[in-house]
Each structure stands twice: as structure tokens, then as C-alpha cells.
Amino acid sequence: MIxxxxxxxxxxxxLASGLVxxxxxxxxxxxxxxxxxxxxxxxxxxxxxxLMSRQNDEGNSLVQRVAFGHSINDRLTLEAYLVGDxxxxxDFGLVAYELEARWMITDQGKYYxxxxxxxxxxxxxxxxxxxxxxxxxVEKEFGRASITSNYxxxxxxxxxxxxxxxxxxRLQYRxxxxxxIQPAIELYTAEDxxxxxxxxxxxxxxxxxxxxxxxxxxIAGLNGDSKDHTxxxxxxxxx
Amino acid sequence: xxxSLLSFSLLMLMHSASALAMPEVIITIRDHLFYPSEVMVPxxxxxxxIFVNQDNTPEELDSFELNREKVIFGNAKANVFIxxxxxxxxxxxxxxxxxxxxxxxxxxxxxxxNDVN
Lengths: 239, 117
Known about the structure:
A: 239 residues, mainly beta, Porin, 12-stranded antiparallel β-barrel, 12 strands, B: 117 residues, alpha+beta, 5-stranded mixed β-sheet, 9 strands
């Protein structure tokens, strides 16, 4: 029964991923990022830090995000980010601000798959350059494993950038081995990027709602470049 | 593009029908304890656990084995959907009172479940 569901769900994802390939969009240097789960818990707030370090033929790019998130109710959570990266002169500084809303559409486990939605608005620091992202988050559980997919549509606009759309698809297969160690495989696609690689995540609980979640992934670009890999790290403290 | 989206949506809707006719179990939270603390459910089926919190303070259900976290506000109820599960025992606890608010879901074969009920 589980294997039949897994096959059906995988077919669905492959069909849906065609949506992403059909879109025309420009290069995205930060396709590898977080894979969002479609769940929200009320009474929860968190601090988050993320790092994405990509090494390819063009050199190394480093992006870091720090954020504070707070759930509004049992369906909606908001998170505000400060985004920093390293420029051509090797100086690291603030480059953007971002506000993110995540909406849990269905109760976990009620239907065949769990559904959520993501809305993000990012503004470049001291520039009239904006990015609006929206997407669908889907997660399906198969015993101790789960598949999570994100279908994202991104619109970039502003006076210092050519207005354009692009889309991204992210997929994660995760096995809940023990709370502290949950191995996964992640896939990231955009028009000119396909990345695949292992990741590990875990959770350590303290008292009450206090807990630390961590994620570590190493994604190899499969674009034909001689070198293209991304290290991603995320740490969340929920309280 | 639209065919892909349509196929995906239809597949999701087809399987959403499985949420109908779901067995239900009521668990009461009182004085930071679960009543009953052990519940039996059939294997291979989705089950709706209805938590009724009679305390004035919230409780957060947590279970790594069931892959569920859910806040149940004080003097309120909340639904937790689990399964389909294999036979076995799945523990859960209340995050705010982890030493007292503990319980487990015992999953048995449909035959055993029907015999007991």
C-alpha cells in the first residue's frame, strides 16, 4: 500500500515538475536554499540562521540569512529576514530584507498529502529592486519517510532591474531515523540549474517548546560545469 | 503545463476521499494527564485523534514516532490525524508536562481491532 502510494506520488511530482521546466527564466545563483514544510504551530517563535556557500567555475558566493519568526495563529506564521552576501571585493554586508508568510492550508495527515503556501517579499538594500515569491508546499508521509516539494514562482521587479518571472522546484526525501539524525536527499531545479545531493537534519528538544533544529546539505550542480557545489547550513532555535 | 497541473490536482483530489469515514478516538487532557493514556487503532487506516483539553492552559502534543506536533489550547479541542500505520506502539507526550502527560497509540491488525471492539 505504501509503495503504491509512493509511486503515485512520485509520478505526480514528476508531472508537476514539468511546470518548472516549461517556464523561461534567468539564472538563479541561490537556487539551493531551504526546503519548506507546509506546517505551522501556534505559540511558536524562532530565530534562524542560514548559510549557502556555492563554489563553481565563476568562483565562490556566500549568502547568509538571519531571521526572526512568529506564528500568528494555528495556520499562519510570519518571518522577517536580513540577507547578507559577500561582494566582488570579498566584503560581506547587508544586501536585502525579506518578509515571509507561510500558510498551512490543510491539517497534517488529514488528506493524501499536506498542503501549504509560501509568500515572500524581498527588497534589495538601498536599491529599487524587489522580488516576490509565491509557491505551493506539498508533503507526503510514507511510514518513517516523507517527500516534501516546493513549487515556487518568482517575480523580480523594480527600476534597477528588468522585470521578469522565473520558477523553481525543490524536492526532499527524508527518513526519520532518530530525532537528532534524519538523512535526506534533495533536488533543486531552475531553468539553468539542476542540483542533487545529500543532506542531514535533526532536532534536539529542551523543555516546553524550546528546541533546536539543524540542517546540513551538500548539493552538487549537474549542469556540466567542471565544478559546482553548494554547502547549505541552517540552524533554528524555537521557543 | 496545464495538463500537468490538472493531472496532479486530480490525483490529489482522488486520494483526498480517503479522509472520509475515518475512525475517531477521543482523548481527554485533564490535570495534565491523557485519558485514556493508551488507545488502540487499526493498522493500515487513517485515524482521527480528538484531543479535548479540559485544563485552562495549553498543551502541545509531540511524537517523533507519529511525526506529529499539535498545540491544543486550554478548554478547547484539536484533531490530530495519524496513519496509515504499521502494527506497533507509538508514544506521544505533552511538551509542557513531559513527565506526566504521556501516552501511546497501540496499532493492531484490523482483525484484532474488530475482535476487541
